[in-house]
## 1
Amino acid sequence: MLIGPGGAGKGTVAERLTARDPGLWLSRSWTTRPRRAGEPDDAYVFCDRANFEAHAAAGGFVEWAEFLGNLYGTPVPAPPPGSDVLLEIDIQGAQRVAALDPGAVVILLLPPSDEVQKERLVARGDSPEHVGRRLEAGREEVRLGRALASDVVVNDQVERAVDEVAGIVARARSTRTSSKGP
């Protein structure tokens, strides 16, 4: 799982990581928030509240939560055989998934500073009010994320951060393979 506050660069790192590693399958979260200007159509499954709630009622999510007035959920994964699932997920969701799968690898991605985080949020088109709310919520997300994560990566340079996360994934795969025995 790749977790972190808004503006940490989770989406960018996840996209580059899955483009580099065909053995990773990125789960697309659902949300009721509107798509931001310039945001790819497939960044999330964008839907209205009624469709989201119907999917939740049908058992279609591993976890879901409300954050800053919008619903976000992780669908039940359906990866290709032999693939590892990468969840780009918020802290609340990560806590729920980790409770279901205590062996899950949790990587906390952080922006290099509060100022850079703020710049990233503004650059993606968040309103000043929303930026303030995200920064405030982000402090608690980082505190909780540090308690949950097995690894912490600072996203100060995207390619370096992707390399570091790829190394963590490789180490987890190696550990999983070696624990299965010969």
## 2
Amino acid sequence: MKRILITGTGGDVATGIVKCILSEMSEAVLFSCDIKSIIPYLNKFEKHFIIPRYEDENYWLAIQAICLEHKITHFFPTTEPEILIANKHRIFFNDNNILLVINNEQILDIATSKYKTALFLKNNGICVPDTYLPSDLPDILEYPLIVKPDFGRGSASVVKINNYDELKSVLKNIPSPVIQKYIGTEEQEFTVGVFSDGQTTRTISFRRRLGMGNMSVFVEIAQDTKLDNIAHTISNIFHLKGSINIQLRYFNDSYYVFEINPRISSTVAFRHQMGFQDAIWWLQLLSGEHIKDYHCTKSGTMGIKVAEEHILHPPFNILEYSRVCPPPPPPPPPPAAN
């Protein structure tokens, strides 16, 4: 029986993953953790743990304690910071026979840095927007530009720049910034879900629009062999065994990759309902199970995301971190002086 611990369950990505698992794996026992006490699908979890933020040194202690005490079989971190922490502790998961739902170290090293991603893809013949660090900006720049953190999640802190004065101001306020040439339009933005079991690569491509806190609120299937070829090339050079998400814009008859998410993306629930069930396939792959077949959804199929209500019925099995892993006892007092 799968006993799956999912992190960040107050967020959009984890909510989508939970929907997918509930629809396909009724036998799985789900555990949840987040910094929030009230989350969607609270009634569906065996237990929900309130844990420290990932920056807190007690975060990792909490994850260890939960995994060991509740015999977790699969650990599914859903945010980049938590994924990187799990990556540092692969030995713990291996030693305790816990299957880790994250990508290989090469993917995490490259794709969590927008600058490294651009260099790596360019060196492998894939079109990317001109991308710079502040230290290597050319003397002559063509505006508009995009400035964003080298490490970041989704569209957070992404700023469009129209002139040099704006650029100087923004560079002071964004940590470890990366500058990219702004290309195409929002109407020509695409996202490609990619899953591979190490031998066969599956893809699904959307034209998308963002809204409601930069979530994907509209998607439309976009079948194009150029997108498929880019996805297969990236899957091969990354030695992918799992799922990634590629973001592109169409410009001058070419697709330009401007970002890769080394994780399940926020369109996971859309993809799942259209037959591309990468969250389920990844769990099946790790467990050595047969991976379900995939049949492409026809071009033009659309999906929209709307706000929904969640009714949560007590009792709630919510545990504070301090109840999960109590602090160690104080050291014994020094011996009395003779």
